[in-house]
Write a structure and sequence with these properties.
The complex is a heterodimer. Helices cover 43% and strands 18% of the residues of chain A. Chain A is of the alpha/beta class. In chain A, strands 7-6-8-9-10-13-14 form a 7-stranded mixed β-sheet, with helices on both faces. A 5-stranded parallel β-sheet of chain A has the order 2-1-3-4-5, with helices on both faces. In chain A, strand 6, helix 6 and strand 7 form a beta-alpha-beta unit. The longest helix of chain A is centred in the N-terminal third of the chain and has 31 residues. Chain A is elongated. Chain B is mostly helical. Helices cover 71% and strands 4% of the residues of chain B. Chain B has a two-stranded antiparallel ribbon. In chain B, strands 2-3 form a two-stranded antiparallel ribbon. The longest helix of chain B has 36 residues. The termini of chain B are far apart. Classes of the chains: A alpha/beta, B mainly alpha.
């Protein structure tokens, strides 16, 4: 009994001592802390950093890294870190990553999700946590128009705009009178192709729906051969577009092949091989050589390659967060408020988010790229409206 | 033709069944279907051989096929062939690729047998354990190509689809009744049928083949008669693997592509073809494979392409309802014993 009491006193003494010393540290820190506006925080970036579609995500991560590095060099009192979360583009893998960011108070913003599926799956989690999202490349229309989220913003135009632009490009630039439209039945490919169909109207000579992981396209190729279209549009991703285009060319169909931003990136020419030469890929992303300043050169110097898909958009998304910190935002609420009211000029376009989180349609840019020698080369901007 | 069929956008919804397309081009669609089915049939042989002898569904077989496609890519890369190569080089590359792919696939099949199945067999593990092990082997092989090899060697390994050079240019050789036969289609169909005939002759006419049939029929009696069961089992894995390797070569010639998970869908379809024809029956694999390929292409032509799997499995269910053991019936041993 007595022994226990003595230990009890001892414990109290130890904890008192600890508490005192803890106070002491805080004090010295406060005195020495002349970096009153300095801030330690994390920004998360979430997307397919590995997997079959990584080539359309990694450049945007690099863009964000570049933005942070340049900014940090000028703002040494801030300690902002960029943390990467690899989701492989899979909504199921994105959810735990989102929960981790949402529950860690250090995170004041999220760049992403890179794809629409993972964004749809996680924006509820971020909304509950009040954590601001700025997506560099999630283009599904419903993310803002049908189910807007208070924390979601994106620096690119959505699929409806791209679909309309593609339709216009096929009709006016390619001058096609008969177009065959194929989509992969996914939540990305189908709405995009539907918008292209609607824009082209009676110029649609035929239509088919394929599926993911398909390798044999002989039936649809045979239909296209019969329809003899002037152009073919495919709404889908590179893994299927590759064999599809190859089989088209093998069957002697020489009509121009147009795809959406799902084909943007190195994976498409890789999967289609020589058949991809001359294929056209549209993307609501600005070619790096069109981006202002020394972005292209800086990027190449740092990462050893030309900026790829959405690199400048990743840079812009990061820059908006950094400007929020510069403006004195230190909490999630302040960041959200800053981004909601943000107006400014980025590398790719003028930013001002509407209440649903979109940039104004007049500021959206859609570009047509052409495959030349196995690489995507900017061809021309597609005039909107 | 299609243009008049779909003159106004409002008719999209009505475009559910395109009989015109199917019947106007029945010959071309049949040829496409037979080409597709030939590859299913060759892969199906691996399932059927192993099932016939061990009553085991070797789910790792789809990855045995996948390894074959990478072996073809590797051969072409080492030999440096492409679309511009001369005839002699193309022939050489194709023959070398045939042997390399068959060897690679057979080695992987054998390795799976030795590492994963034999230790279990020695311990008399229940069938369910084999099934789980088979799925496990399949996943390991997929990740080796999708992740591990990329880690050590970088691209082309990884998760993206990779284009395989196509030394054989697709050309139409001749036309019969408006149906153009291309060299690639003929090569795939003839190649597959020749391999099937060779295998069928081997199993039915040779001494080693008799051993395979004996073990399939009654392993214990076969052992008493002096048949080395382990050697027979190794033999069927090698044979099935080699067939998958040949299928991989024909697949890359036709589709010019590989991917770390390319085996999955083909594996599922080939397994379906084996069941459709009668699993354990070599000739059933051919019948099942060709039928499945043709049904898929017909349904793609008639409906949209995305309906092909649905139609294929409806046909499978219907066939099994009336012939539960498949079109030609099961059993590797009994049919010819």
């Amino acid at each position: 009994m007595r022994r226990n009491t003595r230990y009890g006193f001892g414990a109290v003494a130890v904890s008192l001592a600890l508490a005192l010393s803890a106070c002491g540290t805080t004090d010295t820190d406060g005195e020495g802390g002349d970096d009153a506006e300095g801030l330690t925080a994390s920004i998360g970036i979430m997307g397919a950093l590995s997997g079959g579609n990584a080539s359309i995500v990694i450049p945007s991560v690099n863009g964000a890294k570049l933005a942070l590095e340049e900014w940090s060099a000028e703002h040494k009192d801030f300690k902002i870190t960029l943390q990467e979360f690899d989701t492989e583009g899979d909504p199921a893998k994105a959810t735990p990553a989102a929960t981790k960011m949402a529950t860690d108070e250090n995170f004041l913003g999220v760049i992403g999700g890179a794809f629409s599926g993972e964004t749809r799956a996680t924006k509820g989690i971020f909304a509950d946590a009040g954590l601001t999202m700025i997506s560099q490349s999630a283009t599904a229309t419903d993310l803002t128009l049908e189910e807007p989220s208070p924390v979601f913003h994106r620096v690119i135009g959505y699929d409806e705009i791209q679909g309309a632009a593609v339709g216009k490009y096929i009709a006016e630039v390619l001058g096609a009178k008969k177009v065959y439209v194929v989509d992969d039945s996914t939540t990305y490919g189908q709405p995009l192709a539907d918008k292209v169909r609607a824009t082209l109207g009676s110029a649609v000579a035929g239509s088919d729906k394929t599926q993911e992981k398909q390798t044999d396209f002989s039936a649809v190729v045979s239909k296209i051969k019969t329809a003899q279209p002037d152009a073919i549009f495919y709404g889908g991703y590179a893994a299927e577009a590759g064999p599809f285009l190859k089989q088209l060319r093998d069957a002697g169909v020489q009509a121009p092949f147009v795809g959406g931003d799902g084909l943007y990136g190195a994976d498409f020419p890789k999967a289609a091989g020589e058949a991809s030469e001359g294929a056209i890929v549209t993307c609501p992303c600005l070619p790096s050589e069109e981006a202002g300043g020394s972005f292209g050169a800086d990027y190449e110097a740092k990462f050893g390659e030309k900026p790829g898909a959405y690199a400048a958009e990743g840079y812009d998304a990061m820059t908006i967060f950094l400007k929020a910190f510069e403006d004195g935002a230190t909490t999630r609420e302040e960041v959200e408020e800053f981004v909601d009211n943000y107006e400014g000029e980025g590398l790719t376009k003028t930013y001002k988010f509407d209440e649903k989180g979109d940039v104004a349609e007049s500021n959206v840019v859609v570009w047509a790229y052409k495959v030349q020698d196995g690489a995507l080369v900017a061809d021309q901007e597609i005039a909107l409206g | 033709m299609c243009g008049t069929f779909l003159d106004t956008p409002s008719e999209f919804g009505k475009n559910y069944m395109d009989f015109n397309n199917l019947f106007d081009h029945l010959g071309a669609h049949t040829l496409d279907g037979l080409t597709k089915g030939s590859i299913y049939a060759l892969v199906a042989l691996g399932y059927t051989l192993v099932y016939g002898v061990l009553k085991l569904i070797n789910f790792a077989h789809s990855e045995v096929f996948m390894v074959g496609t990478w072996a073809v890519l590797g051969t072409y890369t080492v030999l440096g062939v492409g679309s511009g190569s001369g005839l002699g080089m193309v022939l050489l590359a194709t023959v070398v690729a045939l042997f390399v792919a068959a060897l690679a696939s057979a080695s992987v099949a054998l390795a799976v047998e030795r590492i994963a199945y034999r230790p279990l067999r020695k311990k008399n593990a229940p069938p369910l354990i084999f099934l789980i092990t088979a799925i496990g082997c399949s996943m390991v092989l997929v990740e080796v190509f999708g992740h591990v090899l990329r880690y050590f060697f970088g691209p082309p390994f990884g998760r993206a689809a990779v284009s395989v050079p196509s030394p054989i240019q697709t050309t139409t050789l001749f036309e019969v009744g408006g149906v153009g036969f291309t060299n690639v289609q003929l090569l795939v169909i003839v190649g597959a049928v020749v391999m099937m005939v060779v295998l069928d002759t081997f199993v039915n006419r040779t001494r080693l083949g008799r051993g395979v049939r004996a073990v399939a029929q009654d392993p214990d009696t076969a052992a008493l008669m002096g048949v080395n069961q382990d050697r027979v089992i190794m033999l069927i894995f090698v044979l099935g693997g080699a067939m998958a390797g040949v299928a991989a070569l024909l697949f890359t010639i036709r589709f010019d592509l590989t991917k770390f998970d390319i085996g999955f869908l083909i594996g599922v379809k080939a397994f379906t073809a084996a069941v459709l024809g009668g699993i354990g029956n070599l000739r059933g694999a051919l019948v099942g494979g060709l039928l499945l390929g043709v049904v898929e292409i017909y349904s793609s032509a008639l409906f949209e392409s995305r309906w092909e799997d649905v139609t294929a499995f409806i046909v499978l269910v219907l066939v099994l309802m009336f012939r539960p053991s498949g079109i030609l019936g099961e059993s590797l041993g009994k049919a010819r014993a």
